[in-house]
Amino acid sequence: MASNGLIKLKENTKEFVTQRDIAENPKNLRIKEVEGVQVVRAINDVDFIVSSAQIVALARITPQSMGQETAKDKKYALALVTLQGRENEPKIQKLNKLLNDPQVRDFINKQYQGRIVPVF
């Protein structure tokens, strides 16, 4: 919301923002925080939502968003993680290669139509 000029945040705001971090609300927006899946129930009762890609995808909400994240916003990207010392094992390397294949990017783009954005 801040990056789209709807609100202004206080200086030195941390990574996870709450209503207490709002310095200015020039449009006098009424902001209601709800738990993740409650967004799905609230979607028809509000003008817009701010939610994770996972909730939006599971709810099959069409991304008609004015503030959609882009591939450069990797803050919440998922990553392949393994135990230290196993990163060079052939099966881990193969999985990493498969996950970063252009066909996977094409599948994500086609299947999720902007609800989830590939960042690789």
List the helices and strands and how they pair.
Elements (H helix, E strand, L loop, with lengths): L7 E2 L12 E3 L13 H5 L10 H6 L31 H10 L2 H11 L8
Describe this structure as you would to a colleague:
The structure is a single chain. The chain has helices spanning 38-42, 53-58, 90-99, 102-112, and strands spanning 8-9, 22-24. It has 120 residues and is mostly helical. The chain has a two-stranded antiparallel ribbon with strand order 1-2. The longest helix is centred in the last third of the chain and has 11 residues, at 102-112. 2% of the residues are buried.
For the largest beta-sheet, the strand count, sense and barrel status come to: 2 strands, antiparallel
Q: Gap between N and C termini, in Å?
A: 25 Å
Helix content class = 25-40%
Tally the helices: what do you get?
A: 4
Q: Any idea what the shape is?
A: globular
Q: Tell me the radius of gyration.
A: 18 Å
Return residue spans where pLDDT drops below 50 for at least 5 consecutive residues: none
Average pLDDT confidence is 84
Helix/strand-derived class?
mainly alpha
Query: In what order do the strands lie side by side in the largest sheet?
Result: 1-2
Number of strands: 2
Strand content: under 5%
String of helices and strands: EEHHHH
